[in-house]
Design brief:
The chain is an alpha/beta fold and about 200 residues long. Helix content is about 40%, strand content about 20%. The chain has ten helices and seven strands. The protein has a seven-stranded mixed sheet with strand order 3-2-1-4-6-5-7, sandwiched between helices. Strand 1, helix 3 and strand 2 form a beta-alpha-beta unit. Helix 3 packs parallel to helix 4.
Length: about 200
């Protein structure tokens, strides 16, 4: 059976279905804190480059948190827009805050630097609800990881509007939180009564 040629209407409907119609109307800053992740950071950045190729305005910020390997170099080689190379390890919370300070887009996407099997579809699944104003924060949890599949709120894969976290930049609780950053973000969402949804991400490790 021959595939029907694309038409403006068909293209429009496909964009509605996969969420790209909404995401083309927004801008995204992706912040990736990384400590000694030279083996995986390039792959994560390359998937974000694929997101750009879909016409989605994406700023890629990698924060090398005192790494003593080639993390910063690999991020630059993969095409990160901004690489912050911290000379001292300040922990995940502080690294994310440094990334937020440099972010210029309306929506923030937080990703771990050691993700394996990440693809554009995973990103679209997380981004679409916030882009469509169906949620203030989306948390993508890895269904193939037992801990995250049970405790979704521990996941570091998140999408949130920048205006929500702008005021925490100078809050020492966040900058000194290290691996408690997600817990503090959950509390912030609760206190502000933000609408949060959880997105299952399969075949991602």
């Amino acid at each position: 059976m021959k595939k029907r040629p694309p038409t403006p209407l068909r293209d429009f409907l496909e964009q509605i279905l996969d969420g790209t119609f909404y995401m083309e109307k927004v801008s995204i800053s992706c912040i990736i804190p990384a400590f000694n992740e030279e083996k995986t950071i390039g792959g994560v950045v390359s998937i974000l480059q694929d997101l750009k190729l879909k016409g989605i305005d994406t700023e890629i910020i990698v924060v090398s948190d005192g790494s003593n390997d080639q993390t910063a170099e690999r991020a630059r080689e993969a095409g990160a827009d901004t690489v912050i190379d911290l000379k001292k390890n300040i922990g995940k919370g502080g690294a994310v805050i440094e990334g937020i300070k440099r972010a210029t887009r309306d929506i923030l996407l937080f990703l771990d630097a050691d993700l394996v099997n990440l693809n554009v579809e995973h990103l679209q699944q997380m981004l679409a609800p916030v882009a469509k104003n169906e949620a203030d924060m989306a948390i993508g949890f890895l269904t193939d990881m037992k801990t995250q599949n049970t405790f979704h709120f521990f996941s570091g894969q998140r999408v949130i509007k920048r205006v929500v976290v702008q005021d925490v930049i100078d809050d020492r609780k966040f900058s000194k939180s290290r691996f408690q950053f997600e817990i503090l973000l959950n509390r912030l969402a609760r206190d502000l009564k933000l609408k949060t949804i959880f997105i299952p991400l399969s075949n991602l490790y």
